[in-house]
Design brief:
alpha+beta; five-stranded mixed β-sheet; rod-shaped; about 10% strand; five-stranded antiparallel β-sheet
């Protein structure tokens, strides 16, 4: 079993030499101030090797100065092992305590010579130890020392030291910590126990630095509020600030673009005005020429119309005559067809044949009657007489009839003449009317032709040609401008980047120069501060120093001792313990020669180099003043550097701001380019649609006009047809009237003729009857005389038939004569008449076509001339109106102030009037745009405080300030700086959450170990209690009631709940992570408030993560679960409880460490043990020893001697050295 076996002091802590055995319980006794705590601290130093945690008061000397005042001051720790002991030597080297390990039991001969003097040189000690013993190199690192002692030897460089470990444990830190905390604390409360348990867990001093978080999140609320404005969505899904920013940017760009358009408009107006003034005379001349052309074409149209009218009327009359003749021919043909003229002609043509046959019949009859001539003659004479009478009667009647017929014919001729005259008159009236209608129809045809020509022209005519040309030019200009703007934008961006780089380079050079200028004063300041610290250190050490002692005991020492001793190591050393010796008279202040350690030296040539406290204070004041001057110089350099930096930055910022304004203007223009492109395309489309619409309208109008003309022509043709129908009706009426009169006359004649015919027929019948009588008498007489009467009857019958046919022929001989005459005059001439009529009609049609064509051409010329004239008059009127508008515009100072005068020109296709109207609208719009821009800016800025995160100027006054703000906002939005803010702020604050989670996790990761340790302590007491009065000591951990700690625990839980997406946490996300973000922000705000509520709280420790309560039952006294115990019974009982708790704490951690490498013994140093009842002293010693814990206690007096293995008395001798005397050693 390994353990610390003894401790040896050599010229250490006012102990010239002492050996203290530690292989059992040890009791130090002695009065106050004799050094009991000094020995206990030396023991503690073996375990914790931590000079700052030995309980040395600040007003006391440091550990190094007190325990190792001389070069030959040592502390030796002898450690027992299973085979042989080894030593740990603590010594001072290069001003600080270090360690060496000696693989051998302690031997005083190593350090003390025959004269009982301790060696001051390590080489002597090394020689005494001997080369056969293993001695380590110097161990200067206290952590390395602890690793060696407690066996944390995994590192390669510690392998050679493995044999020096009292236990092997990588987690040994709890042991020295617990021993240390037990020694340093005297109170017994939950916090003490809690901190003891916590500190025993690890060397790490885990805590949460609240000041760090105060600094980190002091601006959180403002920053989060400002940045959240850019992500917080409204019900409609929009982000209000983003929408308002877009409105500001749109308003700003609209303002910039409108002002650009105003500038362009003024230049375009200059160009358009100059061009208009040049065009004005030419327009007037063009109008005169167009008017002359209109008059010329109108005259030609009139002449053509007059010529056409005359020729058309002549042809119409000739066609009327021919039509009448053809109509008459048709009527005659119809008449002759009705009377069967062909039969009549055929019968009339048989007249000669019939007469010849009659003569033959008469001859044959005569031959038959030749034998009966007398009878025949007698009857012949009678019959001839009858025929003569009949003939005479018929002739008289025929003559009368002929007279009436001649009168009829005369009357018919008169009627025909009257009919012809009326018909001619009717036709002439018709021709007059149809001539007018024909003229109208011809005019309509002409107009229709003109409309057809116009319709054909509409397909090729474009009234929007100029606008389309303008649109095409504007689109070409737009395309060129688009390329130009993009080029200019890149150039501006390049220039900005160049300026920024130049600024950066210049600022870096200035910074380098500035830093270079700081080198000398900084070095001087460092040197001065080092001198100040040195002087201050000397002044601090002057009290109780050798210098102070010389001032009090050796006058004039400055001129002898002061010249040969070191200022820092000798004169201002406070541990030299100077004393006057017998031969002090050998050192005289009045002699130039002095004796030092028996050597006389001449000091007159030695310059005094030490400084008195007064001189030190004077030099300190000088150095502090020099430091103040240097600091002032540094501040002046800083101020000058900042001023230069500001000036230099301002120089570039002014250029960059102007370029930025230009860049924003370019971007504004580029932003509007798609709108302009869309507008131009829409204009092109609208113009095409307008052209199509115009053509459709024109065609529709022309179609309507043509339809109207066609309808009118149809109407006129119908009118003409109606006139023709009227003519035919009237002609028919005349014909009818003529026919009626003729018929009436004919009927009168026919009545007369019928009466005559009746008379003739009656006479004929009478004659025929008489003839029959005579013929019968003749027949009878001739029959009686033997004649063939039957043959005679046949001859008579045939002669009668031939006479009847000759009568018919004679009756129709005039009809045939008239027919033959009319055939020659009418029927035979009909083809020629028809051909003539066709020629006349074709001539008339050709005349109309020629007239229509020539008239159409002339009418088209007139229409074009009139259209050209109208356009020229409109253009001139527009030109005059435009120039008047320009003059009016320029006179208006509101629209055209003096500073707006623009002398440059820009080519444009727009006219003055259009440009003036656009400029007016744009100028008026500029005022509205500016007002709207300011309004939108103010509304946007109203969302932010004066100390906003983005450094927005929330109170701009001048237009320039508004413009500067908008320019910055554009850059802010376009470069998506909010994302940078979001990323930076979200990253910083989510990192804070991560850090809180980690640090809280670090604080609470020992929670299980702490709980198990508490259970082990409780179990240890239950198993091995010795004190009857103490029936129970129990601990229990509870949930902390520290509100700030509880908040951080909730933050940790929140972070752990979101551990799989915390890496992507964005405090400003607004969709799926809304609830998580809201909680994160809520926690950060609550944390910030908690820090503000406790401004003086510096940190949170593991102890804040839980609350510890304990319960002690002492006889019938039950404390209940409490955090503090004021008194548990008597003072002794109170101390006993503390001792038991401390021992249980140490044991728990010791057992954990010994499970791997076996048990070992350690020491527990405790004060105030003497207040215990003797029975309890024995019990507590046994309670500790059963756990392989050796107690090292101290008290003013001795008691329970038999319960300690060693009792040491500490006392002071006459030189104030501490003597350590062993009083009792119990076997």
């Amino acid at each position: 079993m390994r353990y610390l076996n003894k401790i040896i002091f050599l010229n250490s802590a006012h102990i010239p030499y002492a050996e203290v055995k530690l292989d059992g319980n040890v009791h130090f006794i002695g009065t106050q101030g004799v050094g009991k705590s000094t020995l206990l601290r030396a023991l503690l130093f073996f375990y914790n090797a931590d000079k700052l945690r030995l309980g040395i008061p600040k007003e006391k000397k440091s550990f190094d100065a007190f325990y190792f005042p001389y070069p030959n001051s040592y502390i030796v720790y002898e450690v027992m092992r299973e085979n042989e002991a080894y030593c740990v030597l603590a010594l001072k080297n290069q001003g600080r305590v270090m360690f060496r390990f000696i693989d051998a039991p302690f031997d005083s001969k190593w350090f003390i010579d025959e004269r009982k003097q301790v060696y001051g040189e390590w080489s002597m000690i090394r020689e005494q130890v001997g080369k056969k013993r293993d001695i380590s190199s110097l161990v200067s690192s206290y952590e390395m020392y602890r690793d060696i002692i407690f066996g944390n030897n995994r590192r390669l460089e510690l392998q050679p030291f493995r044999k020096y470990a009292i236990v092997e444990s990588a987690k040994y830190q709890n042991i020295p910590r617990t021993i240390q905390n037990v020694f340093l604390n005297t109170k017994l409360d939950a916090d003490f126990i809690k901190n003891t348990i916590i500190r025993s867990m690890s060397d790490e001093d885990n805590c949460i630095d609240l000041n760090f978080y105060r600094e980190q999140i002091k601006e959180f609320e403002q920053e989060y509020k400002d940045v959240s404005l850019w992500t917080k969505k409204e019900k409609n899904g929009e982000v209000q600030v983003r929408r308002m920013a877009d409105k500001v940017i749109d308003a700003y760009r609209t303002l910039l673009n409108n002002r650009r358009l105003i500038g362009e408009g003024r230049r375009e107006l200059n160009y358009a005005e100059r061009v208009a003034q040049q065009l004005l005379p030419q327009y007037s001349l063009d109008i005169q020429e167009s008017e002359a052309e209109c008059n010329r074409v109108s005259r030609l149209i009139g002449e053509e119309q007059e010529k056409y009218g005359k020729e058309r009327d002549k042809l119409s009359r000739e066609l009327g005559v021919l039509d009448a003749q053809l109509k008459k021919t048709a009527a005659k043909r119809k008449h002759y067809e009705e009377i069967h003229i062909e039969d009549i002609l055929q019968r009339v043509e048989q007249e000669t044949i019939i007469e010849d046959e009659r003569r033959r019949q008469e001859a044959m009859k005569a031959e038959l009657e030749k034998s009966y001539q007398n009878v025949v003659d007698k009857y012949k004479a009678l019959l001839e007489q009858l025929d003569m009478d009949l003939r005479a009667f018929r002739n008289s009647k025929t003559t009368l009839l002929n007279e009436h017929q001649a009168a009829l014919m005369t009357q018919k001729e008169v009627l025909m003449q009257e009919w012809r005259k009326a018909e001619t008159e009717t036709r002439e009236v018709f021709w007059e009317k149809t001539s007018s209608v024909d003229e109208m129809i011809a005019q309509l045809v002409h107009e229709e032709t003109a409309l057809k020509i116009q319709k054909a022209k509409v397909a090729h005519e474009n009234p929007f040609a100029r606008e389309m040309e303008t649109n095409e030019k504007e689109f070409a200009e737009f395309t060129a401008r688009q390329i130009q703007v993009e080029t200019e934008k890149r150039e501006v961006e390049l220039r900005i980047e160049t300026l920024r780089q130049e600024a950066q380079n210049e600022l870096e050079i200035a910074e380098l120069k500035y830093q270079a200028s700081l080198d000398a004063p900084k070095k001087q300041k460092t040197d001065v501060e080092a001198e100040i610290r040195k002087i201050q250190n000397l002044l601090d050490k002057s009290k109780g120093s050798f210098s102070e002692w010389l001032d009090q005991n050796r006058k004039g020492w400055q001129e002898n001792i002061g010249k040969v001793v070191d200022e820092e190591t000798i004169l201002y050393n406070d541990v030299l313990n100077p004393q006057l010796v017998a031969d002090s008279s050998a050192l005289s202040s009045s002699s130039s020669a002095a004796s030092l350690y028996g050597v006389n030296i001449n000091l007159t040539a030695v310059e005094r180099k030490f400084r008195t406290p007064k001189e030190l204070k004077e030099q300190l004041a000088e150095k502090e003043q020099l430091r103040a001057d240097i600091i002032k110089q540094l501040n002046d350099l800083l101020n000058q550097h900042e001023e230069n930096h500001k000036t230099m930055k301002g120089k570039y910022l002014l250029q960059i701001r102007k370029l930025n304004e230009s860049l924003h203007a370019k971007k504004a223009e580029m932003q509007l380019l798609p709108q302009t492109e869309k507008k131009l395309k829409m204009q092109s489309l609208e113009l095409k649609n307008s052209l199509e619409k115009w053509r459709s309208q024109q065609l529709a109008e022309l179609e309507d006009k043509q339809n109207a003309l066609v309808a009118e022509k149809v109407k006129k043709e119908e009118n003409k047809h109606q006139l023709e129908m009227d003519l035919q009706r009237k002609l028919k009426a005349l014909q009818t009237e003529y026919n009626r009169q003729v018929k009436q006359e004919t009927q009168t004649f026919e009545v007369f003729a019928n009466d005559i015919q009746a008379q003739i027929e009656e006479k004929q019948n009478q004659v025929d009857a008489r003839k029959q009588e005579l013929l019968k008498a003749q027949r009878d007489e001739l029959h009686g005389k033997g004649m063939d009467t039957q043959t005679l009857d046949a001859y008579n019958k045939r002669i009668a038939e031939l006479d009847a046919e000759l009568t018919y022929i004679r009756k129709n001989r005039d009809v045939v004569a008239v027919y033959r005459n009319e055939k020659i005059e009418l029927f035979d001439q009909e083809p020629a008449v028809r051909k003539n009529r066709k020629n006349k009609a074709e001539a008339k049609t050709m005349l109309e076509d020629k007239f229509r064509q020539r008239s159409g051409r002339l009418q088209l010329q007139l229409s074009e001339a009139q259209s050209q004239l109208t356009k020229q008059q409109t253009a001139l009127k527009k030109l005059d109106a435009g120039l008047n508008a320009v003059r009016s515009f320029r006179r208006d100072e509101t629209l055209c102030p003096l500073e707006s005068n623009e002398i440059e020109e820009k080519i444009t296709t727009k006219d003055c009037l259009t440009i003036v109207e656009e400029l007016k609208r744009q100028i008026y719009e500029d005022g509205r745009s500016l007002d709207n821009f300011k309004k939108q800016s103010q509304q946007f800025l109203g969302m932010f405080s004066a100390h906003n995160t983005f450094h927005f100027n929330v109170s701009p006054v001048t237009e320039e300030e508004f413009i500067a703000f908008a320019s910055n906002l554009c850059e802010f939005v376009e470069n998506d700086k909010i994302s940078e803010y979001q990323k930076r702020i979200s990253g910083r604050y989510t990192d804070i959450i991560f850090r809180i989670s980690k640090e809280v996790g670090d604080l609470t990761r020992r929670e299980g170990d702490i709980g198990k340790t508490i259970n082990d302590i409780n179990h240890d007491f239950e198993e091995r209690n010795f004190a009857g009065v103490i029936r129970e000591i129990a601990l229990r951990p509870l949930k902390t009631n520290d509100q700030l700690m509880l908040l951080l625990l909730r933050i940790r839980d929140f972070a752990e709940e979101n551990q799989f997406n915390m890496g992507e946490m964005d405090l400003f996300a607004t969709e799926s992570r809304q609830d998580v973000n809201a909680k994160a922000v809520k926690y950060l705000l609550a944390f910030m408030k908690g820090l503000l509520d406790e401004p003086n709280r510096k940190q949170l420790q593991v102890a804040d993560t839980f609350k510890l309560e304990f319960r002690i039952k002492e006889n019938d006294n039950d404390t209940g679960w409490v955090e503090k115990i004021a008194n548990v019974g008597s003072d002794g009982t109170d101390i006993l409880v503390k001792a038991m708790v401390n021992i249980m704490l140490i044991n728990v951690f010791k057992e954990k460490a010994s499970k791997k490498s076996g048990d070992f013994k350690i020491h527990c140093m405790m004060d105030e043990i003497g207040k215990l009842h003797p029975n309890n002293v024995k019990g507590i010693l046994d309670f500790a020893n059963r756990r392989n814990i050796l107690l090292v206690n101290s008290s003013p007096t001795t008691y329970n001697v038999e319960d300690y293995k060693y009792t040491y008395l500490l006392s002071k001798d006459n030189r104030a050295y501490t003597k350590v005397t062993q009083l009792i050693k119990r076997l």
